[in-house]
Amino acid sequence: AAGIPDFRSPGTGLYANLQSYDLPYPEAIFEISFFKQHPEPFFALARELYPGQFKPTVCHYFMRLLQDKGLLLRCYTQNIDTLERVAGLDPERLVEAHGTFFTSHCLRPSCRRPYSLGWMKGRGPGLWGPPQGPPTPQAGRWDGCRGLLFDLLIIMGTSLQVQPFASLVSRVPVNTPRLLINKEKTGQSDPLMSLMGFGCGMDFDSEKAYRDVAWLGDCDTGCLALAELLGWKEELQELVRREHAAIDAGAGDKDREDPGKRQGDKDKDRRDPEKPRGGNKDPPQ
């Protein structure tokens, strides 16, 4: 809905559009060893995804609305486009599991320093690696949902094919309701995955199903329908209108370049390459 092509759609997905680069396999584009030898495919992909040319959608602002109402415990995302940040999600509640364009790091052995998106747009010298994640401070948050109390787990717009991310749906308490908003049902029980320790998956249709519900359609329509049931439809639509107007008027330019700024001084280290995080510790890789 934001105009960003997905990865896996046959013929139109980003992987399909990279066939001319003769990748050994699609995921190689995100492997640092392949990138060092053949950076061209990644930069071709980055041109399609780079922040600043897309706006958050209804789905992003629905998550923002949950946060504003004190109902968002955590947001795990596979997206690297920073739109969750642009929509105003608190980075402390955000786990960008596959990395993010918000930060990059220099690949020169003598440097290895992280740099912010805003800094890179104007000055970035040298060779910069693909987004990688989860960064060190977030790595421990993969299991952070264990032991926490959830009222609801919402899963949106994913094939649930990539591990370990896909197994997150099985890491919530067994009595937690799980809502899938997606164009098709996905993440169903797989005995092989269960034997490998990735959980038992989702159960929408069996006689034993008791907590999983699938709403089939695009994420924006699903979020709007859920907001209407909650009595928030007009509030959500107004939030989208107001934020998009600010972006269109240019007031959002700084946030798109440096989305963490709206979070205040606590995120200064995320934006300041001259102040490495964690003292003398190595920066996130």
UniProtKB/TrEMBL annotation:
All residue ranges annotated as the Deacetylase sirtuin-type domain in the record: 1-233
For region Disordered, the annotated ranges are 246-285
Recall the GO molecular function terms of this protein's record: histone deacetylase activity, NAD-dependent; metal ion binding; NAD+ binding
| Assigned keywords, A-Z | Metal-binding, NAD, Transferase, Zinc
Q: Which Pfam families match?
A: SIR2 (PF02146)
Catalytic activities: N(6)-tetradecanoyl-L-lysyl-[protein] + NAD(+) + H2O = 2''-O-tetradecanoyl-ADP-D-ribose + nicotinamide + L-lysyl-[protein]; N(6)-hexadecanoyl-L-lysyl-[protein] + NAD(+) + H2O = 2''-O-hexadecanoyl-ADP-D-ribose + nicotinamide + L-lysyl-[protein]
Needed co-factor(s): Zn(2+)
Cross-referenced PROSITE patterns: SIRTUIN
Q: Which SUPFAM superfamilies match?
A: DHS-like NAD/FAD-binding domain (SSF52467)
> InterPro entries, from UniProt?
DHS-like_NAD/FAD-binding_dom, NAD-dep_sirtuin_deacylases, Sirtuin, Sirtuin_cat_small_dom_sf, Ssirtuin_cat_dom
| GO cellular component term of the entry, any | nucleus
- Output this protein's name: NAD-dependent protein deacetylase sirtuin-2
Q: Which organism is it from?
A: Sapayoa aenigma
Q: What's the name of its gene?
A: Sirt2
